[in-house]
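User: Hi! I'm working on a homework problem where we have to compare a predicted structure to a textbook description. Could you give me the structure for the chain below?
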Amino acid sequence: MALGHADWDVTLPAPPMLAPDLVLHAAAWTDVDGAESDPQEAAAVNVGGTQNVASLGAPLVYYSSDYVFDGRKREPYVESDGPDPLSAYGRTKLHGEAAAGEQTWVVRSSWLFGPTGNNFVRTMLRLGAERDEVAVVDDQRGSPTYVGHLAEATRALVGLPFGVYHVAAQDECTWAEFAEAIFVEAGLDTRVRPISSQELGRPAPRPSYSVLRSEKPETPVLPNWREGLRACLNKLTTRS
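Assistant: Happy to help. Predicted C-alpha cells:
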C-alpha cells in the first residue's frame, strides 16, 4: 500500500490501516532553506512524523541524508563517522534517525534525483531549455544518486541487520560538474558558470564535502552517478 501526502499527513497519527509488515518512510521536509527559517515545522515532519510512522510497530526503512555531516572531512564519510549537521534540516534528519527506533534500517543517501518531483536534474533541464548560461555552485562536492538505483538497493538492505547504511552513487562531483554532465547528456548547449556558495547566498549552510561510502561489506553498491543520470534521462524521454 502506497500512501501519499493526501492520504496521510505524517505530522498526525496514522489513519486506520492494516498492520504493515514493512514501512518505507520516504515522507520528509526536504526544503533545506525553508527548514532554516521554520525549524519547528521541519522538525514536526522529520522528527514527529517519523515517530508517528514508527508507532505502527513495523520494521522501518528511514531515508536520511548526507547533510547530517559538517563537510569538514576530505574523504568519504562512513557509518562510524560522528554526525555534526550544519543546518536545521540536517539536525531534523539526524533526530529523525533516533526517532525511527531500533527496528530500523537508516539509509543515508545524497543528492537524490529522479524523473518525477522537484530535483536538481529536472531544474537544470528546465533552465537549460530557457537560458544560454546557468550559474551553479562549484564548491560543494557529493555523489548524485538516482532514486531508481536507491530503490533497488533498498530491496537488498531489507534482508540485512538493522542499523545505519550509507547508500550513494559511486564517484563524486560538484553541483557545477553535475550540471555540465546533465546538459551534455541531454544535448543542450547551455554553459555552466561556476560560482561559490557565498555568491549564491542561500540561508542554510551546506557541507562542502558530503560524499558517502559504506564501511560495511554487505551494503549494496550503487552504479556510478553518470549511469544514474543516463537512466533518469532515459525515463524522462520515455515519459514524454
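For your comparison, note the following. The beta strands are 23-25, 60-65, 104-109, 112-113, 133-137, 141-142, 145-146, 163-166, 173-174, 191-195. The two ends are 27 Å apart (CA to CA). Good luck with the assignment!
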